[in-house]
Amino acid sequence: MASVVTNDMSIVIGGDAGQGVESSGAGFSLSFARAGLHVFGLQDYRSRIRGGHNFYQIRLSEEPRLSHTNPVHLILALTPETVELHLDRLAEGGAVIFPDKFEIDPEPLKKRGVRVDALPLTRIAEEHGNRVMTNTAALGAAAGITEFPLEFMESVIRDNFAAKGQQVVDANLKVADAAYKLARERYGADFQYKLAPVKGAPRRLLMNGNEALAMGALAGGCRFISAYPMTPATSVTEWLAALPHEYGVVTKHSEDEIAAACMAIGASFAGARAMTATSGGGFSLMVEAMGLAGMVEVPLVIVEAQRGGPSTGLPTRTEQSDLLFVIHASQGEFPRIVTAPGTVEECFEAGWRAFNLAERYQCPVVVMTDTFLASSLRTVDADAIDFGAVQIDRGPTLTHEDIEALSDGYRRFQLTQTGVSPRAIPGHPKGVVVASSDEHDETGHITEENDNRRRMMRKRMGKMSEAEKEMRPPSWYGPEKADFTLVCWGSTYGPCKEAADEINEAGGSANVLRFPDLWPLPEEAAAAALAGCRRTVVVEQNYTSQLARLLRMTTGIEVDGTLNKYDGRPFAPEEIVAGLSKEVASGHAA
Amino acid sequence: MVTRLDPKLFDATSEITWCAGCGDFAILKALKLALADLSIEPHQALVVSGIGCGSKLPDYMTINGFMTIHGRPLPVATAAKLANPDLHVVVVNGDGDSYGIGGNHFVQSCRRNPNITQIVENNQIYGLTKGQYSPTSDKGFVTTTSPDGAIELAFNPMSVALAAGATFIARAFAGEPKHLAQLIGEGIQHRGYALIDVLQPCVTFNRINTYDWYRKRIYHLEEEAYDPTNREAAWQKAHEWEERIPLGVLYRTDELPTYEDQVPTLADGSPVSRIIELSRNPRPQQYESLKEGFL
């Protein structure tokens, strides 16, 4: 056997929709997180409740990882199809585990040197529990051949099945134990990839982007969310809805996304911190309401978790194809802010920061994520979710004491140096608020008078220039000077970062330039950063290189090359490395 | 005993752009009267409107007013009430706004029962866009977009509201502002969603459904032995139109809780009061235990 590799491998669990692939994957991931390993869990599923291949890929490491990689070391097949679909990705010395009742052609397995294969998983499940526990048997076997102490899996079984009663817990424990022993005895010595608990690892949370974003919003004072279910955004609302009542979050599953956006606007107008969360299709319906928020200067936070488009597109898959749409959505011209967190930790911060931006500039703020970031589970240091760092800054929102002190009448749209007007919360006798989606004067009353129109346009648009001052410049990762700069936004930061590491370790030279705030784009900083690059390659999960277009539109600078992926599957780092080599070979990036 | 306010408290200086004789004047006057009678001050109420002639109403008042977009005042108003249940929230919009483009929100509001009042300025025509047929235009109604007469059956807000579960359904006539004010007042006092559909002649574009046309047909349910808590009777009354048109409360029930009553997270604080409190004292430690769910 080749030398032992500890704590650096990927496991795929594959099966049909309805077989519990996702819950098995998430549960198994949690047992590794509890053992101090860094986990990256990629979910791949179809838009259906039953049938069709789904898989869950768990990457394990002693280093934090922001991405999956394509090679896998262990395949847990709950259907014969899983073997067929993933065998090509199996790394040397890798193993496939499947129930021995499957009729699987052994030839391709032999050709790849697979040592572990059929195990009596169903029989073990039936003997100690029932056949539904075949998943548990497969996970137990995986723990067995990787010699990963069973106690971590046992603790997760106890927690996850507690609600189903002690009998179910005990049966699952027995199934796991039996499969563990059998796999370890039979194949443990032959399998070179091992997993071991990491001593002294800090407490880590296993969470996805949606959960972190919702948690950030809560900590930022969001107490109202209206939304219509849409993959992959739904769990933002679900997480807030499941909170204990004492947090006081009002959640409203509305009749459609038009109502969702309008409700968030209504709640915000009344003085709450309110948000909505959706994907591109739902955002399309919110577009008119977003213009209303822009016109009446109501703070509005929208989470836009992108998926494959257009139209229904690829409902459960990832894409970054809404960037230019979001930046330009709705008729007329009005200020808006668009941010794009790249990691789970950044999702937490984006959640609370969005409310500060929305209230400071009294405009819509769109936080853009995508399926990859919204639903991939990752371990994050518990301390990185820092509630103490959360700030609540309501901008020029007037307290009742402020309104009480007003000397002359209140004007909601009072002209100011910054364009931002003091905002009264309806309810004070001296601060009656009038707002209209029609053009209006300082008091909020409707007027089409031309001088007023010019003043009001300048006031509203002036807020953009103010906001631009606090938009974050692009950030760098890797060596200061490099032959190649991978330019990206949002979730592709993860695979880009790892691709750059790979290139640099192999003796090449690459760094990453990532744009965390996309609108208003900090133009000077963007231009300066791009000007200092030798060769820029924009890496995006879309067809038309929307960031590249945005950069050209705002800075006049054209990037040297583009790498695009639009099949709904997230970039793996090695795909970026390979794509870059092709760029070089074809001279595109030269 | 509440002290009545002076309705002039709600007057504004903005220029009113409605046509002379427009039924909306009576609705504006009646709303001021109703609020004054209930001693609700301008800062204690919020009037939310959509788009159309009648939706300009908040512009002509001194009151918290939010003129939103076409068809959408109901979700805006519903959420404003959820965010701050202390506000008296009134929606004012037209028949196209409420029953056409905003039709889904109308149906959902009926079954949702938020404690808000909706006044629909129903003139059976699109006035601001200069005379196209509306959801409540009678079949055969000739307009610029129905030159051969409207093909669809007229939308019946009374029966739809009843079928969808509305807890207060009333009809008024702009030619009787006192009765209208009375119904608006009852609607505001009703705990739950209250619909007041106001027959409101458009003197410029609707030459059929005029003040006279309505006067010939209307009668008052209050003057008959009519029990507005009887659903079956209401269903009958909801379908009277061509010969006789009933005014007054067609249906009401005070048995059902409001939407807000049933939201457990509103029990000891509103989203508005909570953020005011949090911005003074964010108490970050209150969230720490949430991490347990991810360990």
Question: What does the model show?
Answer:
The complex is a heterodimer of chains A (590) and B (295). Chain A has four domains: 5-201, Pyruvate-ferredoxin Oxidoreductase, domain 3, CATH 3.40.920.10; 206-389, Thiamin diphosphate (ThDP)-binding fold, Pyr/PP domains (Rossmann fold, 3-Layer(aba) Sandwich); 400-470, no CATH class; 475-586, Rossmann fold (3-Layer(aba) Sandwich), CATH 3.40.50.920. Chain A contains 20 helices and 23 strands. Chain B has helices spanning 24-37, 73-83, 95-101, 103-112, 157-164, 177-189, 211-215, 231-238, 271-280; strands spanning 45-49, 64-67, 88-94, 117-122, 125-126, 132-133, 168-173, 194-199, 218-220, 245-252. Chains A and B meet through strand 9, helix 8, strand 11, helix 10 and helix 11 of A and strand 2, helix 2, helix 4 and helix 9 of B. Strand 17 of chain A pairs parallel with strand 2 of chain B.
Assign the CATH architecture of chain B: 3-Layer(aba) Sandwich
Instruction: State the low-pLDDT regions of chain A, or none.
Output: none
Structural class by helix and strand composition of chain B: alpha/beta
CATH topology of the largest domain in chain A: Pyruvate-ferredoxin Oxidoreductase, domain 3
Low-pLDDT sequence parts of chain B: none
Tally of DSSP β-strands of chain A: 23
Overall average residue pLDDT of chain B = 97
Strand order of the largest sheet of chain B: 2-1-3-4-8-7-10-9
Number of helices of chain B: 9
Rg of Cα set of chain A: 26 Å
User: What oligomeric arrangement do these chains adopt?
Assistant: heterodimer
Instruction: Kindly report the spatial arrangement of strands forming the biggest sheet of chain A.
Output: 7-6-5-2-4-3-16-9
Proportion of beta-strand residues of chain B: 15-25%
Shape by Cα distribution of chain A: globular
Q: Largest contact between protein chains?
A: A-B, 72 and 61 residues
| Ends apart, CA distance between termini of chain A | 44 Å
* Integer count of domains of chain B: 1
Mean pLDDT of chain A: 96
User: What structural class is derived from the secondary structure elements of chain A?
Assistant: alpha/beta
Largest sheet of chain A: 8 strands, mixed
The total of helices of chain A stands at 20
